[in-house]
Design brief:
The protein is mainly alpha-helical. The chain is built from 3 helices and no strands.
Length: 93
């Protein structure tokens, strides 16, 4: 799957996580299903938000590694990429 398609799918996750397409479990008294739907919606929204940032960070790291084959620079780039991905996964700090 190419990067543009992956970004488009991530946008769909973000934009449609809370769309009116879900079974009204709470309205029908299905408490456990309602909780599962809420968790799924939250996961979809998070992945849709974080995935593009992670892809961009990994692309930056690949470019940096390609231009600096030195192992020490490679380690620095890897640490930078991990830091950025961690920050994307935990936007509240």
């Amino acid at each position: 799957m190419n990067a543009e398609r992956l970004k488009a799918l991530a946008a769909q996750l973000s934009e449609n996580a809370y769309a009116d397409i879900w079974y009204d479990a709470a309205g029908h008294g299905d408490t456990s299903v309602a909780e599962q739907i809420e968790t799924t919606q939250e996961a979809m929204a998070l992945v849709g938000k974080v995935l593009p940032s992670m892809m961009d960070t990994l692309k930056e790291a690949e470019r940096a590694l390609a231009s600096h084959p030195d192992a020490n620079v490679g380690n620095s780039v890897a640490h930078y990429a991990l830091h950025k991905i961690r920050a994307a996964l935990n936007p509240q700090g």
